[in-house]
Structure formats: C-alpha cells, structure tokens
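Box 4.2: Ligand-aware structure prediction
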Amino acid sequence: MKNVWLQENKWEDVEDYLKKKTTIIIPFGSVEQHAQHLPLGTDAFLSQQIAVDVAKETNTLIAPPVWVGWAPHHMAYKGTITLKPETLTSIVQDMCESLIYHGFEKIILINGHREANLPPIKIGMTKVRNKTGAFLAIADPFYINAEKGKELSEVEEGGIGHAEELEASQMYHLFPDLCEPSKSAKNIPKNNHRFMQHDPHVIGDKMITVSDVATYKDATKGIGIMGDATLATKEKGKKYHEALIANISEFINYCEENIEVELRNQEIPI
Ligand SMILES: [Zn+2]
C-alpha cells in the first residue's frame, strides 16, 4: 500500500489489499484533559502515531481513527469531550461490521486511553466476535508494553495514573511542540487503605472503584494529574515507544501466521 490510512487510498487499492491481507488496525483515543503539560488530544495522538508506526513495520492498513472516547470523570476540566458508553460500543460495532462486510477478518484496536475506554470497546468487540467470527484484539500500552513500562519507570509506588511519567515521556518524544514539560507536576495519591492502590505497576490486593467529576477534580488537585510527570524524558519516551511498536508488530505478525478465521453474517450495520 502506498498510504497506510484507508481513507487516503481508493476503493480498488483496498480490493487489491484484501487479496493479500485481511488485517486492519483501528486507533481509538480520547479528547480529555491531560493536566497543564500535555494537550487534550494526547490519547488520540499517541494511538494514531502508534498505528502509523506499526502499519509501516507490518504493511497493515489503518482505518480512520476514533478521536473521542469515554471520559466522564475528565469532564471536571474544560475541553474534555465524552461519548456515552453505548455510543462508543456502537461505533466499535458499526466500524468493525463495515470492515468485515468487505472481507477484513482480523481487526486490531489500538487504545490510547487505557482502562477507561476498555469496557465499552470490549462489549462492542464481543458482540462483533460472536456475530461474525472475526478475530478482534485490543493493544493497550498498559498491557502489551507492561514489561518495558515497568523497567523504564522511576516513580514511587502510585506514580502511574494519568498524564504521568510514561505518557508524558512518549508525548515529549513524539509531539514535543504540543507539550510544556516545565508545567509538569506530581500528585501521588495517598490512599489510606491497601486495597485503594490504582497504580498498575504495584502488585497487590486491590479494589476497583469508580470516579465522578467532583471527587476526580479533588483527587487530581485541580491540575488534572494523577502520578508524577516530573520524571518524564524524551529518552524514556523513545525507548517506551520503540518497545511498543515492536510488541504490537510481533503480535500482528503472529496473528497472520497462526489465527484462522471463518467469517459469517457479513451484514451492513443498519
Ligand atoms: Zn492519556
């Protein structure tokens, strides 16, 4: 393919592509506050850049990106846009079913918004999987790049959350003109009960609790950060990003070789 983005090709290019390969990537992001040092589009910018780099590495097509996601707690800060979760679930279903109708069999979603986007995306994917038999997978940096993230991170326990070290490092590496490192801040939540730890790098017994606008603003100190961005560097971001691209590329190549799909119910979403 000359162009990795589906929308930059012509329909005949897609027809030719499908004769050789039936995998496609869809980047999912969010437009939500990222404190004072990162732009609102951070999650979307990152998922799209990851998609482009993986696409070039593996010769895979990318569907148009989904810019916005499910981010109700971030409405505590100006500029955030949130979908209703059922809207996001429907977007997943309608995009995937359109692609499957044309013969795409394997769909790799790249989620830039971490855990908040996962429930509605997984519901949509599960419906599509059961209906069509297509193979669907989510590459979320917290999971597919967990080892490298842990290795690179220098923050204390509780330091990985939102707009923090790893996310900021990756942004400083990829989109320096949109960032203001001098405004980075630190806010390590001081949870007083051992079950209240949210940092994915901390192994331990945990509860899953949900946020609301009022308490999230308070918990993020009126700045919008959860964690420590003061330790973020371009160098860390480069290493983190390169490992992420290598991991997702390896997974796509693995799927090409090993995952068999037989499509059924290839229907137009209507
Ligand atoms: Zn983010």
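In the box above, the bound molecule is zinc ion. The first strand starts at residue 23 and ends at 28.
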